[in-house]
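User: What would this chain look like folded?
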Amino acid sequence: MLAVAALPLFGFVGAAVDFSRAASARTAMQSALDATALMLSKDAQTMTTGDLTQKADGYFKTLFTRPEATNVKLTTQFAQPQQGSFSLTMTGSAQVDTMFSKLLGQSTINLSATSEVLWGIKKLNLALVLDNTGSMSSSQKMTNLKTAAHNLLTTLKDAAKKPGDIKVAIVPFATDVNVGKSNVDATWIDWTDWEAANGTCSNSNYRSKSSCESNGKIWTPKPHSTWNGCVYDRDQNNDVANTATVAGAPATLFRAHQASSCPDAAMMPLSDDWTALNARIDEMTPAGNTNVTIGLSWGFQLLSPNEPFNAPAPALDLDKVIVLMTDGENTQNRWTSSASSIDARTQKACDNVKAANIKLYTVRVINGDVALLKGCASKPTMYYDVQNADQLNSVFSSIAQNLANLRINH
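Assistant: Here's the prediction, encoded as structure tokens.
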């Protein structure tokens, strides 16, 4: 009787062993499914159904190597629930032959597991606001900046799944920003100051418009075609805002200015012409004093859905980002050379940018106001303090990878 009673007992103990083996195999299957789904989610939306199935099968079978599992099958389903969002569902199944449960009439144990990855691909609008002042000529800063910017553009180009997914604007700045002489006829430029400072009097004894006209003489402005492309700060408080330009409303317009150290490289609105973007980086030359405010404000303007550049409106599937890099403290703007006064304008611009839900990275290279730049960044981890110019490449590479990763939200 003891022997007869022992048989079922041994069967149940053996069954526990079989089910433990099956549970271990299922855990391994789940882990392999999760890893395969995450790996394929990076490129699933660009692959054909056949390629996706083939790659999924290859990855999964490389990861799931349990010899006790037989009749292994994998099904893969890719879907786009709505614009800009995606799902990848992978289901695995297999059988494990029993060793002891056969005594109880069960020769196999069926396994199954499912993994689902949900993600969205966001578009990216990025403004690179880059210091082009004279101090950038020292310590190989400009050379390293160009290398870093080129590599950042390459990373983002590779991250774009289709044209228009990622667009970049470039704002080289000094005291002024060069908006390009091709915009000489643009309605968003105000010529009042420029015409007053650039012209000739009917009596050569008078060198300014005010002295010329106050003495009853005629002041003749130079042709606008002699303009070098520069503008300086808008009227306050439009100087720190993304206010739309309105023809006939001078306070909203950008004021032409014949800066003696106008940046050689003109600003470039949002574009995915990677060749042109890289060429613009190559045009940058260091000259002039520092006015961080105007650079940041132009980056803000180029990302805004306002006149005159009409960037895309804010959307759930769109990230707007500014990367601001400078190597010095504020030294000159339209009104003053007081660093503290200019800093106050920069701080207001920073506050307005962040209030508009634009992510702001700041990069200080060797010199610059630490407190101001660190406080301007959207969060402390988005501020970089570069002590040697040759570190710029690694910093920009890190930012570029962060931007690329922003586009994939698992």
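Residues 374 and 383 are 5 Å apart (CA to CA). If you want, I can go into more detail on any region.
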